[in-house]
Structures are given as C-alpha cells and as structure tokens.
Amino acid sequence: MTLKEIAIRNLLRRKTKALFVCAGLAIGVATVVAVVSFSDAMTGDINKKLEKYGANILVAPQTESLSLNYGGVSLGGVSFETEEILQKDLAGIANIKNARNVAAVGPIVLGSTRAADSKVLLAGVDFEAAQVFKPWWQVSGVFPGEDQIMVGAEAARVLGMNLGDVVRLEGRDFTVSGILAQTGSQDDQLIFTTLRSAQQVLNKPGKVSMVEIAALCQGCPIDDMVAQISEVLPGAKVMAIQQVVKGRMEALSRFKHFSMGVSAVVVLVGSLVVLVTMTASVRERTQEIGIFRAVGFRKSHVMKIVFLEAAILSAAAGISGYLLGEASTRLLFRFFIESPEPLAHPNPQLAGAAVSLALLVGIVASLYPAMAASRMDPVQALKTI
Fold first, then answer.
1. Dist. CA 148–CA 142, nearest whole Å
2. What is the 3-state secondary structure (H, E, C) of 136-156?
3. pLDDT tens digits for 98-132?
4. Residues in a beta bridge with 110
5. Does the model's pTM come out above 0.85?
C-alpha cells in the first residue's frame, strides 16, 4: 500500500473532520476570490464612471498675467498678453503617443453678449463631447443646433426665458431649444449654443477659449500626456487637474488595500482551522502512527502522509472555494454593479491562484501536526493500545 493510498483511506475514514477542514479552507478561499474579483470589478466600474465625470486635463490660452486673488476674493488681474487657441490645431491631439488614453476633447469658446437687454456670458460647446464631460446635465427640451440656444436654470429665471422663445444675440435670432436643470455650478448662469454659432456671434472664427480633455486614467501617464499635448499646442498652457486624478487614484488604491486586508484576515482564519483540525486528527491517530513506526515507517513517511492528506483537502477546497467565490461575486454584482462584464467568463489565472493559495495555506498549516506526528515515540504510542 502506497503512502497516497494510506492518506486517502484516512480521509475516507474520517469524513466529518475532512469535510470540516475542506469547508473551512474553502470558505476562506471563496472569500478571497470574491473580495479580489469584486475589488477588480469595482475598480474597473468606478474608473469607467469617474472617467465620465468631467475633464482632468485643461488647455487654456498662454498668458502672461498676475492673478489678484486673496482669501477666495478675486480682485481681477494684470494681463500682459494673451494668445488665442486655434481650433484647427486641436487635430494634433489625435496624433500624440498616448492618444488611445484620450476619451474626449471638448473645445469651448466664451464671450459676453447681450440678451433681453442684459449682459450674459455665451458659451459655444461641442454638445457631443459635452455629454461625455457632463453626463449629469438634465435638459428640458433638446440640445441646441444651429440658430438655437440652451439656457442655464438661473439665467432662464433672471432673463424670463422659456422653451420656444426667440432671443436676439448680436443681431441674430436664436430659439430657446432647451433649459438646463439646476446644477449648482457656473453652468446655471450661462447661455449655450453650438461652437460654430458662438464663434460667429462673438466674432471669433476658428478660435476657442479653452479645451477640456477627458483622459482614461487607470494607469495612464497623465504627466506624459500633458507634455505631449503641450508639444502639439505650443501656444497654449496645458494643465492636469491634479486633484481629480490624484483623488481618483487614491480612492481606488484605498479600496484595494482594504480588500487585501480583509483577504489576509480570512486566510489567517482558514489556516488556523486547518492547524487545529489536523492537530486534533493527529492526536486521535496516536495508535495508528505508533503501528506505522513499529513496522518500519520513517519519520519522513509519517510527515508525507499528513502532508498528502492536507494537499488533497486543500486542492478540493481551492477548487470549490473558487467556484463558490465566483458565484458569490456574480450575485453581488446584481446589487452593486450595473453591468458585470469583468467576470462574464471564468478567470483561469484567478482559479490557479485560488488552488495555489489553498495548497500553500493547507500545507503550511499542517507543518506543525506533521512534525508532531513524526516525533511520536512508537513505544509510548503502542502503550495506549
């Protein structure tokens, strides 16, 4: 009879204890799998959502100016020279090295004009890009086309504008096609129209006041992208909105660290379950181990038997734990994630890691019981018969 056969027969004779060890380790592995899978999926899902909320790179005209601002009170500034950004130059952004990380480019032209005998700020935007930058916009009506405008909530209230009204801007009639719901930002004060219409009204053909850029920043080199955009737009000032990028990365990093901490605790508990159960099993088999030693089994043979039992149980726990963890994660997706694409298919790497982790924990936790079994004095063990 081989050592492997002896280990399997021992497990079959003690099904309850074997199942207890397997279940304890499987639950630990399942928790780790669920936490890791859910963490990765949540990271991807959060990153996708954060990428949609606002720009993280801003391109503004190059200016030599001093801002007079103190304590949050702006007193204006002293400007020496300002250069316009040419809209045609923005095509170069599509050719930078990290162009694949650019989600959207949104040029904006700004200027003051008069509407309903009041001075207002007119913004010309690319509304297709605006839906990427500002998905929280809720519009009563539709986004404007040519000869149409969208009015911010506060501007509509102050100017008394409603859907369908005709507003004259610099001698040109525009129809109010939409009213922007309250956002709590400066957007509430503005009047919006298409980029081309605003350029015509403000007499800025082919020019933009600023450019918003949304970069896909899960590991993207944001500083490199700023440098690359600066090269294709030498006359502009390119800035990374650091608080957005750093805040995003910090939030994802903390979530991962928390997940790893929970996993470590669960693995420790699983190893203790294996240690306690295997130690009790060895003590119950004192007579059996004494007989093995009396008939010529070496210490290494006894240790191998214990390790084989632990390995068989750990492998079974790893497989069942992975399947249980996957099922649990898919169930959690229904409550926390809108579209669970990250685990649409089994993850072979995670499955291999789960089995390897179970084997490592099981064998390491069985080290003390195996050594205790190998050190038993056969004479003393046989006296208990």
1. 10
2. CCCEEECCCCCCEEEECHHHH
3. 888 787 888 999 988 988 788 889 999 999 888 87
4. 123
5. no
